[in-house]
Amino acid sequence: MYTDQHSQQHHVFIPSDEPLDHREVALHFSWFLDKPTLLACLRVSRSWFAALEPCLWHSFTLLRDHPNPSASHQPRQGTQQQQQGRTAFLPRRYPTLGSLQRNARHIARLRYFGELPLLKALVPHLNQLRYLEVTRYTDEIKQLLKQNAASLHTLILKGDPLIPGDTIMIDRIWHHLLDSTALRVLELNGAIVSDYEGTKFGLVCHKLTSLSLIDSKLLERPKSEDEFLNLRTLVLERSFLPKEDQPPLFEICPALENFTWRSRSGKLSTFKFLVFLNAGRGESLSGLDLSGSQVTDSDLASIIRLLPGLTRLRACNSLFGPEATRVITEMRQHQMQELILLQCPGFTETYSQEVLRTCSRLRVFSAPAVNAVDMSQLKWSCTGLEELDIGIVGTRRLPKPVALRHGGIYSQLAVLTNLRVLRLGEVTDMEEGPFLLDLRVQSGLSLLSTLERLEVFDCEKLKPVMEFFDLQWVVRNWGSLKRLVGSVHPNYEQRDLSNEFLSSQLPGLETYLTQADYALALARK
Known about the structure:
18 helices, RNI-like protein, LRR_dom_sf
């Protein structure tokens, strides 16, 4: 599967008087380079190759369907002259088996999906892991836990509860987790914590700062608060827990800062939750995620009112509405930093505008819609926004000339000079249907030249028509752009030419037709 040709000469570091040929200098600037740039640097000289090659191996992923698990690491093949010149020392196929064994000791982050014989050859060399994510608990994984007991910081065990025999039985690995002295973050997916292992569960949790139970079963309620003194983050998604413990584990986590609750039924014992908060036990909580829960709008308002330190709230696909909005805008307007409320029918464009107008410290905001007229006339106070995800309604009520119709929208966005992520959802009119925001310079796009820090632009639902002149404007003004989601032109041929032009002018730019394409690419990284 691999060729090991030239492997003996790769690890030789050749002394030089050039500053950039010194290993320490090369390693320092390598931290500021992305992987494609690092690959290009490997082809500069043997000295750079020897110094920088270990930097490629900090994170490594083994995929079941990839015969070459690091195929994405392969550099572009040069011309025949290049292969015979300064890049001749780099094998045509990289990584080789020799490079895998030589650099395994540099791997600190390993993601392992499937069952690959290659892992058996790598296990003896993996002694400095800090992050381990696996789907199956095998003998190789057991050995990795033993070898990395002193360094492993994060462990994610994923099983599929729908596949018989694939559920992880915690008692098979519990003594290894007890020996992992550096373990602080634990995620169990499809796991069962039995009554017999309840005590060990508490001992392991005593070390943790973050615990996530996803599609899991906790068959015994923990007895002591001492077991969860250090826990700062608790995530419970579609997990079965003792009936008397609702909300589960909350009462015995005195220092909890972030809490996520997503159940299969969507039900949450709001009464016990409110009793717990009324006792003053929620003062340390700053982040709350109740997405998908069926907590009423009035109960959500009560919960927010009882959390004096709340700065981050996610309640997608919930009953969040006018009462909860009123508490946010009247009691938490000077402290809210993150508010994500997608797919909330009760959170209309009027309430979105009120939040944007009053919450001055907001950094992340996602909502179904904002009214175009209000957006054009009422100024937002949250000028420090870094991520914005909105749709726009009511555009037919704006002035008819295109430049005036879109100018107010662009003027409002232009004030957000710290914006790094911008997602514009479907632009519609309640009475007349879809109306697309014109992403062209002549329609006001030029006002967004202030967004110099923009890294992600999602225009998938806008279906824009951008000409070559507009693309040139993007290159000149959005030099920090790293990811573009959506097509900039409806014509397939023109779209491909446009993406090719942007990629050639903006090194490192990733283009995706849909958000699903980006999610798939992210899963494969």
